[in-house]
């Protein structure tokens, strides 16, 4: 059985590299796609889901979403995703350096499925990635369409 792709919205090149490496080292060999801002994220999703013929390809298994991105930040993206009739089904994990309680509450109010503060060490990142993969691909039940 093929795993669903993962979509990661992250503007920092070093963080993208670390995430790619962490997913690879924890055994995730399937497709991981990166976008650098919210506009690219919606362009990516629109290419998967074409409203004209209602043909839907595999949506991401989940989206890792950085809050602080250029052009359209994570908060705007989260709000728009959760208002979309199809994209709102995609689990969104806010993955950011922001530890502010007000920000965490705001993200959950906007529809975040989870909020994870980026770990400081690579070893901790490996554990977080494994836990996220395990939960969203093995434990949680989410609708396919």
From TrEMBL:
Gene3D superfamilies: 3.40.50.2300. The keyword Zinc does not apply. InterPro entries: CheY-like_superfamily (IPR011006), Sig_transdc_resp-reg_receiver (IPR001789), TCS_response_regulator (IPR052893). The modification 4-aspartylphosphate is found at residue 66. Residues 5-133 form the Response regulatory domain. Pfam families: Response_reg. GO terms for biological process: phosphorelay signal transduction system. Keywords: Phosphoprotein. The keyword Repeat does not apply. This is Response regulatory domain-containing protein. It comes from Niastella populi.
């Amino acid at each position: 059985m093929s795993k669903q792709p993962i979509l990661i919205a992250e503007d920092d090149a070093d963080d993208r590299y670390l995430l790619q490496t962490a997913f690879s080292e924890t055994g995730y060999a399937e497709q991981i796609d990166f976008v650098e801002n919210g506009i690219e994220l919606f362009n990516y999703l629109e290419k998967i889901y074409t409203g004209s013929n209602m043909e839907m390809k595999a949506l991401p298994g989940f989206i890792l979403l950085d809050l602080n991105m250029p052009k359209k930040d994570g908060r705007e993206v989260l709000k728009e995703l959760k208002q979309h009739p199809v994209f709102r089904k995609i689990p969104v994990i806010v993955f950011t350096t922001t530890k502010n309680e007000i920000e965490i509450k705001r993200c959950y109010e906007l529809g975040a499925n989870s909020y994870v503060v980026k770990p400081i060490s690579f070893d901790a990142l490996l554990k977080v990635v494994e836990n996220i993969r395990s939960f969203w691909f093995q434990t949680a039940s989410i609708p396919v369409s």
